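Batch 3, record 17
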Amino acid sequence: MREISQNDHLVSYLAGLAAMPKISERQRESRRQQILEAALACFSEDGFHQTGMADIVKRSGLSHGAVYLYFQSKDDLIEALADDRHRREAVLNSVAQGSGDPLERLHALVRVYAQWLTDPAGEARRRVGIHGWAEALRNRRVRTSVVEGIDMPRALIVALVERAQHDGLIKRDLGADAIARTLIAIFQGFVLQKCWGEEFDSKACMAAVTGVIDGFRITRHDVKRRTRA
Amino acid sequence: MREISQNDHLVSYLAGLAAMPKISERQRESRRQQILEAALACFSEDGFHQTGMADIVKRSGLSHGAVYLYFQSKDDLIEALADDRHRREAVLNSVAQGSGDPLERLHALVRVYAQWLTDPAGEARRRVGIHGWAEALRNRRVRTSVVEGIDMPRALIVALVERAQHDGLIKRDLGADAIARTLIAIFQGFVLQKCWGEEFDSKACMAAVTGVIDGFRITRHDVKRRTRA
Amino acid sequence: MREISQNDHLVSYLAGLAAMPKISERQRESRRQQILEAALACFSEDGFHQTGMADIVKRSGLSHGAVYLYFQSKDDLIEALADDRHRREAVLNSVAQGSGDPLERLHALVRVYAQWLTDPAGEARRRVGIHGWAEALRNRRVRTSVVEGIDMPRALIVALVERAQHDGLIKRDLGADAIARTLIAIFQGFVLQKCWGEEFDSKACMAAVTGVIDGFRITRHDVKRRTRA
Amino acid sequence: MREISQNDHLVSYLAGLAAMPKISERQRESRRQQILEAALACFSEDGFHQTGMADIVKRSGLSHGAVYLYFQSKDDLIEALADDRHRREAVLNSVAQGSGDPLERLHALVRVYAQWLTDPAGEARRRVGIHGWAEALRNRRVRTSVVEGIDMPRALIVALVERAQHDGLIKRDLGADAIARTLIAIFQGFVLQKCWGEEFDSKACMAAVTGVIDGFRITRHDVKRRTRA
DNA sequence: TATGAATGAGACTTCATTCAT
DNA sequence: AATGAATGAAGTCTCATTCAT
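Prediction for the assembled complex:
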């Protein structure tokens, strides 16, 4: 009996050790990413609704059940990708924060987005982004994610433009919000045009964006006109 | 009872006639439109792949078989709607009727798009357009439609910008194609932002576009700089 | 033009004829029965949850889609069978209605149920009934159907027993409801025992039921006892 | 960290020992009961086939693997629960301890069942019992359990009734087996009616059962009739 | 012994399309 | 031309069971 009792204690102790999660948090996150990457690739090629779970399963190298161990449903997967995109893009905006020359920061923001636009490794993400724009029209959660995703840079641009207007660097007859939406729209359109595989000359187009921002600047002509008035 | 039986005979008889008279061309076109409108409404609400043929059939008031008499497949319907001829024709007209001044013509073009963007009756078309943009990523024929749809206005803008540059109205350091793509991108982005339905101030944004075009104009600063160089 | 117009009228007329339901109500009901019979056979053999829709589909001779044309879901099929049973059993109870000798009517009711119990063609229905009894524990709709199914004969028996008690034919010291529940319980238990394939001697058991009812009758012993009290 | 690493080694070492000490028989039985209780609760709520192993695992507080160490399969669990030894033993005891009078013993048996029927703690068992009745229709081993479960009390009742008939206490024109089956059927039906939870007056119904047994007794009327014949 | 992540067959259901009428 | 019942492949998701740890 004494021996059994000792064994019981040992067993309990070992059981306690075994009660730790079977795979580490890092391993779990790695599997999650593995699935998300497979989903990204599939969605990028065929869109959300033309991609079957079987495609994602096959591409992930896991089993059907395993995928559902990490994501509750296909919709969950779609939303996770939307959130993922949301999180990644938040990083892009950081370059615009701070208190330097607002026009310079605006140009910096444009450069970052230009880089994001032209990075070959981001192709799939951009394509999925477009599918997300369409999906946002009918899926509230995706829409929220998308809208919040553009609200962030918009707020930044608005702040920069307002500061620039206050400093007399940018024309005051255009709304800051409208300018922000215009700049964002340009990049949205560029993503579309680029992903459709047209002969999209990124360099020239980025120059045009720079030109657009410069066009917002106050010229002597404007100064005179305003002085006269 | 006897009459119904006679009718049955009549039906069989007519069905057997190879030379059975077809419905008028006008009726045929009307039916086609009826189906396209139903499809437009459905696709606008749920996207191409979340809309079932049954939805379209129900909304059109016709039968499954009837729809397939006018369109070979669901993809056929999608392609028919992705190809938005209306807009292209409107653009053509607007520019054909414009005055000689290329900048004025550019502004006219912008006005046409602005109208298309803000017309409440065009909401469904705009939404379907966005779904088409996503679909263009995986469906070659849809992509061709979409790309051709923007190639036409792009060519127009390029021509106008080149003339304006030649006339010394627009800076020469920006590619005409890049400017065209930028202007088109702006409208694509506006369509997205407006359809997501979040506080999009169309009037202010259109003013910003006008500002963008004005920004492309040559200023004394530019003239001086170029003279010096 | 006149000919076309005439043709249009003809077409409309024929279209009007064709707008009648494609299959007659009788045909539709026949298909429904075809499916219900297949489901009954499958459920009888394997229970509701171990029977796959594929089994029912195969047995019905129809296609997967066709079954779903008549029933919304597997649960719908289960509930339809419960309702079906409900409706069929309602007929059994009719023999007990009327105003004749209550004891005789009770015996008549027993005979009808005995017949229902021993009818070889009803085997599948009895088995499905048992599965329904279990299902009633967790499916509200099935439970409602089952409970209503026994409420009907119970109410009848209660009425007969009360009349018999009033007429001095049955002991008054037993609740009419309890007697009704007891008689119903007997048949429920018989169904179980019979369906399990035990050596169930229907004739002897029915005699026992008759004996039970006779046992409820007032005897001289009771009369004396009541007189004394 | 070093300690954990040491533990890992210890675990590996113990796992490698073929002679790894087993847990005590008492612990093993306790684990088995733990699982059976969890399964009972789950099956009672959702039935055998709507309960997942995951439900049982969660409720038992153990792991999937652990459950499979004690039961080979889900069917194994079902069979273990379908075989309700508790009740059978209670019946045996009650009759073994009864007085010599067969009628009194019969009443004692009824009291035991009445208690089993009304014990609130037995609700889950009764519900699982019903699921077992349905399962018995398609699972040979469950059926064997169930049938054997009623064979034992049936044999007891048959013996008691035959003695009572021999002693002139019960009518001889009813088969002892039929009477036994009838009494058992009554309780089966009562279990159903009670578990469906609709205004089942246990007390009144038990009185009715007593009445049924009394009804089987020989009355002066019967004696006379038999004498005459 | 005990864990729980992983498996994969199979569950229910949908839907684009066809074809007898 | 028109109908709509019928098809059946393919979709998403579940779950009893296993096995590396």
